[in-house]
Design a protein that fits this description.
By secondary structure, the protein is α+β, with helices and mostly antiparallel strands. The chain is 16% helix and 47% strand. It is built from one helix and ten strands. The longest helix has 24 residues. The termini are far apart.
Length: 146
C-alpha cells in the first residue's frame, strides 16, 4: 500500500512540474498587444518609448533603425525598468541590414531582438544613443498587458 501511495505521489509531482510551465505560457486571448515607437538624437537624455504603465504584462522585444551620419552608425541603448526596480540596459550596435533611400540617407536596422520580459505591476522602456557619433535612432517596442 505504501509503495502505491509513493508512486502516486511521485506521478503527481512529475505531472505538476511538467504542466506548470505550460500553464504560465498560455495566452488566453485576453492580452492587449501594443507597439510603441520613439526616436532620439541624444546620447545624454533618454526618451520614453513606453512611459510607466500600470498592470502586468510583458515586453516582447525591440527593433531599432540607426541613421548613419558622417559614415558612422549610432548605437541604440534600450533602458528597461521592471516593476519600479533597477534600470537594466541593452546596447544594440550591430547593423543587420542597410537601406539607402537614394537621397543620401543610409539607415541600418538592428533586426528584431526578442526579450519576453515579464512585469507584474509596471514597465518603463527608454532609449538613447550609446555615444554622440552617428545620426538619430528610432526604436519600436512590442509589448502587451495581461
Amino acid at each position: 500500500m505504501e509503495h502505491k501511495l509513493r508512486n502516486a505521489l511521485a506521478a503527481l509531482v512529475v505531472g505538476y512540474v511538467c504542466m506548470a510551465h505550460v500553464a504560465l505560457a498560455v495566452d488566453d486571448g485576453q492580452t492587449q498587444p501594443k507597439v510603441n515607437v520613439n526616436a532620439t538624437n541624444s546620447s545624454v537624455t533618454p526618451v520614453d518609448v513606453i512611459s510607466t504603465t500600470n498592470g502586468s504584462g510583458n515586453v516582447k522585444g525591440v527593433a531599432c533603425a540607426l541613421n548613419q551620419s558622417s559614415g558612422n552608425y549610432p548605437g541604440a541603448r534600450v533602458k528597461i525598468t521592471i516593476d519600479s526596480g533597477t534600470v537594466q540596459q541593452v546596447d544594440l550596435n550591430d547593423v543587420q541590414a542597410q537601406f539607402d533611400d537614394g537621397a543620401g540617407t543610409i539607415t541600418g536596422y538592428t533586426g528584431w531582438v526578442p526579450f519576453n520580459l515579464r512585469f507584474g505591476s509596471n514597465i518603463r522602456v527608454q532609449i538613447q544613443k550609446t555615444s554622440g557619433s552617428g545620426g538619430s535612432i528610432t526604436c519600436s517596442v512590442s509589448w502587451a498587458l495581461d
